[in-house]
Amino acid sequence: MILKVPYYSQVGFGADEHFNDCGPACCSMCLAYVKDISVSPNDWYDIDGWGAPDTDVGTYAWQMRKALAEFDVDSFQSGYLLAQEEQPIISLVDYGVLSRAGYTWVKASFLHWVVIVGRDVNHIVIHDPYYPEEQGANIRVSYGVFNSAFRWSNIAVIKPPSDERPIRKPGDRLGKPERMQR
Known about the structure:
Layout: H1 22-35, H2 61-69, E1 75-78, E2 89-94, H3 95-100, E3 111-119, E4 123-127, E5 139-142, H4 143-149, E6 150-157
């Protein structure tokens, strides 16, 4: 299943005022999917509490979670590779691993945030904000390469369900099943 998450780039129009905008671009994608609100990567820096990232370090997970919370977007962080259905996941990867395997448009090596938008039998499907325009949307990366690139941090962005089923988070306990009415 591949989610219809809108793509935002961290380079070019709307992301031209700061460096290391992969985190803000990923937040833009998730906010557009969850709330149908368009916020450019540049605009995240004006949100209370976001602040400009250090040019050598980039964006931290806590910054993204705090910024998304400004729009009442629920999220949780996990050090494990998540397999959420119907939820975009912002994931920290080693871009060098993706680059050496031929999944990038430039040869580079750094830590980088991407959005997992789906998977199939052989691939994780990502939106890579380091591509210009829509070229970074729906890139299929083999599980083996993605697992090698994954760097211990995910932010699962919760989209409220269209029906009334509750979304379970890691650590939630299953309640007792309701008795069937006769």
